[in-house]
Amino acid sequence: MTAKAGIILAAGQGTRMKSAKPKVMHEVAHLPMLGHVIAAMRGAGIERIVVVTAPQMEDVRALAAHFGAETAIQDKQLGTGHAAASAKSALGDFTGAVLINNGDMPLARADMMRESLDSAAKSGLSVVAFRPQDPAHYGRVILDKDGLLDRIVEYKDASAEQRAVDLCCAGTYSAANAAKFFEWAAKLKSDNAQGEYYLPEVPLVAKADGVKSAVTVTDEVTVMGVNSRAELALAEAAMQQRLRAKLLNDGVGMLAPETVFLSHDTVIEADAQIGPYVVFGPGVTVRGGAQIKSHSHLEGAEVGKGALVGPYARLRPGAVLEEDVHIGNFVEVKKARIEKGAKANHLTYIGDARVGAGANIGAGTITCNYDGYDKHFTDIGAGAFIGSDTALVAPVKIGDGVITAAGSVITKDVEANALAVARGEQRQIAGWAAKFRARKAAEKAAKGKK
Ligand code: UD1
Ligand code: MG
């Protein structure tokens, strides 16, 4: 098998985004666009990946390194062809196949890339094209009478006749031999409407060298380019649709999938049931048979088999719900393990804690975990019954089987199987209420006579 390298063009600031953040760092389904393109390349069997960045883009280089990719610097943003050529500094005399991809294509798929590489293996050079509903500003792909590539014309350089062509340049290109590709890219000229070195013109240079480019056609969604906030929102919508479809196909139940928002890494097992308007942040796993009811928000959390969550629950990073746990409405759990079968059904905050198996947490219970400086741990034993409106002032340890009286403020450890009561004692003054009402009635009557 030929070795394969990938080049990702990411040196453009993305001015149409109107953002201080470089374009490829903007996220789709909680993963920067750059991460999506790198993942697709890996899926296509590409071993070496070089991300081309502008000199000041330290953060993009750090992100690329985080994803295990190499980086190269394009000194000046002289166009996509110039950017691709800049990757030579990293790839040196690599002679395997190379796939070049725009960094602003978050929906790029591995099989689209593989098809492009296979096509280049036969023809020498291959470009990916698509037919968008609105070809707008995309480069136009002009075919010759044999269906091979004649040339690609940028929208700004195209004649009215060329603009009428609906086959567009996707921003993915493959060459069978990286050394040849760099040779061609070095010969690009910038005598065009934008005064830039256009990557889509590499096929013209190759043609002069006797290599006719092939074209593979893919669907619009896979190669949609993100150049503005509006296009970012469209890409997000398309990605959400793709993620939902995959989960449904894997056996996850969803009453209203179009209202469920997923993260690129959301794991939900078959036979879990997700209600309407549930939002998943990054790092969530939901096991089979669990139910996440409507309007819940989860991130960095694990939901065990058969657990019930919501409606209106919030699971924050480090929340681990074991099997058959119930977390009900207006309950927030953060960095806490809720052991098998424990329940917190209403209006509760559990943070920096362990709740033992089978414990019951009454409505209004709060783990007071923060003193303004540090976080402290609350340990609740198995089978404990925490009365409604208990404040557990951490650090504190509640033994197995303990009962706390409703309204208690617990500041000291409680031994197993004890009752802890920590609230003002109730007094009763016989007849006081009736006397109070009589006095008020008399006052009102006196005022009325004046
Ligand atoms: C480009 C193509 C167009 C194609 C479209 C598909 C060119 C000249 N045009 O247009 O034919 O239909 O993509 O989405 O290639 N970049 C650099 N250095 C530069 C300029 C750009 O690294 O000097 C990077 C950008 O960061 C971006 C990618 O190249 O990731 C594409 O640049 P962009 O400005 O988005 O090109 P388009 O106008 O979308
Ligand atoms: Mg673009």
Describe this structure as you would to a colleague.
- The chain has 450 residues and is of the alpha/beta class.
- It folds into two domains: 4-218, Spore Coat Polysaccharide Biosynthesis Protein SpsA, Chain A (Alpha-Beta Complex); 250-420, Hexapeptide repeat proteins (UDP N-Acetylglucosamine Acyltransferase, domain 1), CATH 2.160.10.
- The chain is 23% helix and 28% strand.
- The structure holds uridine-diphosphate-N-acetylglucosamine and magnesium ion.
- Magnesium ion (MG) binds next to loops.
Uncertain segments: none
Number of domains: 2
* Overall form: elongated
CATH architecture of the largest domain: Alpha-Beta Complex
Largest sheet at a glance?
19 strands, parallel
Structural class: alpha/beta
Name the CATH homologous superfamily of the largest domain: Spore Coat Polysaccharide Biosynthesis Protein SpsA, Chain A
Helix content: 10-25%
Bound ligand species: uridine-diphosphate-N-acetylglucosamine, magnesium ion
Strand content: 25-35%
Distance between the termini: 106 Å
Which CATH class of the largest domain is shown? Answer: Alpha Beta
- Evaluate the radius of gyration: 31 Å
The number of helices is 10
Mean pLDDT: 97
CATH domain topology of the largest domain: Spore Coat Polysaccharide Biosynthesis Protein SpsA, Chain A
Number-wise, the strands total 33
Q: How do the helices and strands line up, and which of them pair or pack?
A:
Blueprint: E1 4-9, E2 27-28, E3 31-32, H1 33-43, E4 48-53, H2 58-66, E5 70-73, H3 80-86, H4 88-91, E6 97-102, H5 110-123, E7 125-130, E8 140-143, E9 149-153, H6 160-163, E10 168-175, H7 178-186, H8 202-208, E11 214-218, H9 229-249, E12 253-254, E13 267-268, E14 273-274, E15 279-280, E16 285-286, E17 291-292, E18 297-298, E19 302-303, E20 308-309, E21 314-315, E22 319-321, E23 326-338, E24 343-355, E25 360-361, E26 366-368, E27 378-380, E28 385-386, E29 391-393, E30 396-398, E31 403-404, E32 409-410, E33 419-420, H10 432-449
Parallel strand pairs: 1-4, 1-6, 4-5, 7-11, 12-14, 13-16, 14-17, 15-18, 16-19, 17-20, 18-21, 19-22, 20-23, 21-23, 22-23, 23-24, 24-25, 24-27, 25-28, 26-29, 27-30, 28-31, 29-32, 31-33
Antiparallel strand pairs: 2-3, 6-10, 7-10, 8-9
The protein binds uridine-diphosphate-N-acetylglucosamine and magnesium ion.
Magnesium ion binds at residues 102, 104, 225, 227.
